[in-house]
Protein: Nuclear transport factor 2 family protein
Amino acid sequence: MPLTRDPSTKGRGSGPEMRASGTESGRGRRFYPSPTVPKPFSDPFREPGYNPADPSAGGRARMSHIPAVNALITAINFDRFAEIEARHRPDAVFQSFRGPTLRDAVSIADWHREFLRDYQDCNYADLEYIEEGNTVAVRATIEAKGYDWRPFTQRVIEVFEFESHDEEEVARRRLYATLRDITLDKPATAALNDALGYRGGSPSQTRQVVKAFYDALLAGDREAAAAQLSAKATVIDGVYGVATGPENVLGLFASIPMPAFGKLRVTNLLAGDHMAMVELAIDPARPRYADWVRLVDGKIQVIEGYAMLRELGINPYENYAHDRHPRRAILPI
Structure:
């Protein structure tokens, strides 16, 4: 049955003029909905959030931003550049491991055109989410093909920030990454698999443990930091290597070079049931590191380290040409 609108209500929104005529038995019903024009590329529905009611929203239940994030990731996977632009605010800010810092949606769409030329058949896999307030952190593994169509994987953390609880356009976005094709030894793989299978914990406990660890780590208190680590603690850093065991983990963090001026600080912390995402920087305007922390039984088991590679002085456009195609002299027999 087609939906129509009462002409007498023209120019007014939904309210008393939203009426129905007829009865349910024998005769049809006519509804007069409000003339709402959907946004371009907007989702046909929004999944209800599981967070409690937001006081700033007038008692309304907060809507989850994860569907909007998934829609943007899908647009990237399928090279939909117009949709990528539409899903960012016109004045959106995007900071990535490849650089540079972009400050408008058009430039962000153009950046993805170049990015997807270098990452052919790009696919975000193994997605994990942490949502807190108007911020969503996603840990993913990018599966793609390089300049020579050889497949590679690269682990990334993306942070999406929205202006309000009902906003669907991304306002700020940060993309951290590791180097490509990281391989793990048996102890690190066992610790990671153990953490992936854990399903307990609570956000409040996770925040308390992670905050205590980073406060002690940045203050140089190794004993207090080690108290928050499990016996199988492992760090998987995309730049500085892999270490297993509390003492080795703390030793690796101590070996990371720091600039002559400034002090590393925590700029953002999102906590889930048994996972947390921590951003660290010397200057908050220039993101530097992001860690994806996994807990088991109230102790930190795995820390995955990601970075703004360009901020560290690492070439993010490395194509591994010399590694994969070594030139060898052909000698006579």
